[in-house]
Amino acid sequence: MTPILGIWASGITSSKQNSYESIATYSPSGVTTVTFSSIPATYQHLQLRMLTRTATSASDFIAIRFNGDSGSNYGFHYLYGNGSSAGAAASTPDTVIAWNIADGGDTANSFNACVFDILDYANTNKYKTARFLEGHDLNGSGIVELRSGAWRSTSAISSIEVFTFGPNFATGSSIALYGIKG
Fold it and tell me: Cis peptide before 93, with omega less than 30 degrees from 0?
């Protein structure tokens, strides 16, 4: 068995282990939005890897939209745990896929970590789905969430907008987009 990104898998050859290609990386300090545009349709899937925090405590949410679509074409579900309770919730229809992140009012230097997989992003025969794991520690408290999201469109994804609900991203934030070969 071979370890891949902290998960044990068997039957995966070394060519599959190196199937992630960096498309672009941003360090979005002082801005509210990062947009990945002109995404090539040459991969099987996409993956966003994010370490984010807002600079102020005005808002602690981050969201994603595809192809500039701000209509009520999104939905998401999640399971969460915060050290003292657990639960599940959903939001559909919605105008974004959103989740909580660390903010300027939280423990100093705490960032939200998120791995966000967008499956079959270039397939024009089905709606787009995403799965992601995210969370952050707040010096003994915090939250971890397993989420799924959907964009009810058959359009190939050619741009991804990642944004906060008002405050700027804090210094030290990083958002990277990878293409996953088939």
Answer: yes
